[in-house]
Amino acid sequence: MTPTKIMCLLLALLLAVCGARAMVVQLEVLVLTAPGFSGIGFMTQVMRGYGVPFTVVPVSPGSSLNLTELLWTSDSSARFAGYVMYPNLEATGYLTHAQVEELWDFQRKTGARSVKFGAWPRSVGLEPDNSNCGTSDVIMTFTDSTPIGASGVNPAAHLASGGLWRCPGKAAPLLTTCAMWASDFADAGLHTPCTPKPILQFAPQQPDAAPQVAGVLVKYQDGRESLAFVFDCSDHSTTCMLLGHLSLGWMLQGLVPGERRALLTVQLDDFLLTTYFDSSAPAGLSQNVTSYRSSLQDVLSHVTWQQHLKLRLPSGSDIRLDLPFNGGGVIGAKAGAAAQPVGNSLAVDDRSCIDMPAYKDLNCSCWNVGTHACPADAPEFCRNCTKDWPKPLGFGKNRVPQAAVNFSSLWHDPQFRLEDPIATALKNNEGGIADAFFFSHHTFTHEVGAGLRLWAGAEAGTETIGNLDNATAFDAAEQLSLNADAAAFLGLSNRSGFSSGCMVTPQISGLHNGDALAALARQGVGCAVGDNTWSFLINPDNPHHMLYTTKKEHGYNGFEILPRFATEIYYNCSTASQNLALYNSLYRSFYGRDSTIDELMQREAVRVVRDGLLSLRHDPYMMHQANLALLDGSGKSLAMHWVEAVVAEFGKYASWPLTSLKLDDLRAAFLARQARDECALSYAIEVGAGGAVTAVMVKSGAAAVNSTQCLAPLIAGGSSATIPVARGGSARVELPGLSWHMPASTA
Length: 747
What we know:
The chain is of the alpha/beta class. The protein has 17 helices and 31 strands. Residues 1-22 form the signal peptide.
């Protein structure tokens, strides 16, 4: 062989090797939208729930957008694995012909898929049905061609379309060209050979009429692929939230950075206390009954209900109620003493400022709006009577008596006995009751009237308070210390379902009281739930992170406030009729009529599924012990009704497992998510010949900190993997069996 032929052969081999170099595609999503357009929020909400990296780029018509710089890295790796376009910028004049072609060329070279919402039918291969444009609620269903993949979306789901403007496409004939006219191609247009396949259809509007098309999977002649929907979307729509999951899984071809976890955790505050009604007694009880405390039978019924519920849920599900308890509700009297010990007692006023006559007399209105929004010319009392008013450090006097310090020692007196059947059952774990639920702290007492008498000897006593807004450090410390002693006395402390590091403060109080927060932290509690009703108790930057207190705003640095959703199941209601009466008094003017209990529960279920479960929010939900009562003959409590409604609604749309976490584990989940986000993880894949994914690479963009390790979760082909990577470092792993669609011309 001549030297020339040898050189030619070597060159050919070199070119072959270079040509076979794996393509690197970053698993990030590009969101192309219009400036100021908020409709894309549903998609970013879904991606943020998983933890998928994404970049939002608003595009103005005629902008000099440098797509080469946007789409490619300096080493010719693809920056994005797919893109979402809403509005459909290609067809509405936001992109020039050259920009459209460059975007399409990126798809051809990388296999990146696109998802479009608000697409005009003709631009995605459909003939528009102009006579049926509108926003009326027409049910949509998936077809056999829907790329459900590993999304867990229920293929039999019925999706509402009310309020979503659209012009549907005709089911036949399907077009062979996807055409659009805009920008500098408004006259000639772009006519691209394509094959649309309906994946979502509207129910027929006339008898014997064919279904109309709502969504299509478009395959272009050049190998590109797009998922397109001919209606507008918003985060107020459960339909759009669900399609966000479907679209994301398809667009990223089953390789989704992050994790998908549906948590439904219900916390029933005030467990072991008595709740006073502010309306009539429930049916079946004497009208002289003004309060209710859960019975042992109520609690045992929920044990059985949880067991049966688990059998009806998807595999891997486990819903358990969390019972933030007040230990003062169960400690009984000494043997031989009267049920209520005789002697002098001191009733302590623990009302909030909003309950004071001055709040009404001065026409105060700042409690709900907060300190910063309170008018500067409001009376000083009003300006200081807000939910977020920071109590001056050291302010106030102790209300818990000194006798409380050694009070729990009395419980170990041989003559001491428990008078309460729930307490006895917990202590002996009768029927597995102590293991069936989660338990967490809610202070020892709560309010006047529900307090425990603390004995200084056998007879004399006093009542204590639970609200922590104005509590001293001593009061807060004793409330928690006594409840911890009660947990130990009842045998709860060492059980796996008990939480000791995060708590529920009574009335969500004390979160702007630096003295109380410091006292709780000294006893190992560094976290408490908030209430999402109050915007200042939510992390303003990321709803998947906790809020951290500051010395300036809260009087203490670094205490964690875990977000929690309120519900329309009210703390002082034990039956559906009670709850409905209060609900209608609040919402009658809004709905223009009285609602039924089924309507109330359905609205709650829709809200929880849309804003919580499909948003992958892990916030727990607030209820109270009175909601455990079984009094109306239905065999179900308000809590059962609510959970059943949510479970049924969720099952319409997804087959994911539903689980609950105890409060400490919820805290750990939030901390893990924050740590993951702080690692600034980026994911990429190596795509070899034929579209085989040869490796997954993860890089941490954060600064290295000692030997800190980051955990990078990844949904891959229907299963989950976690890739460890040093903070500030990178890792490469091979996950067999994964593939990536590459257009035939470039594969």
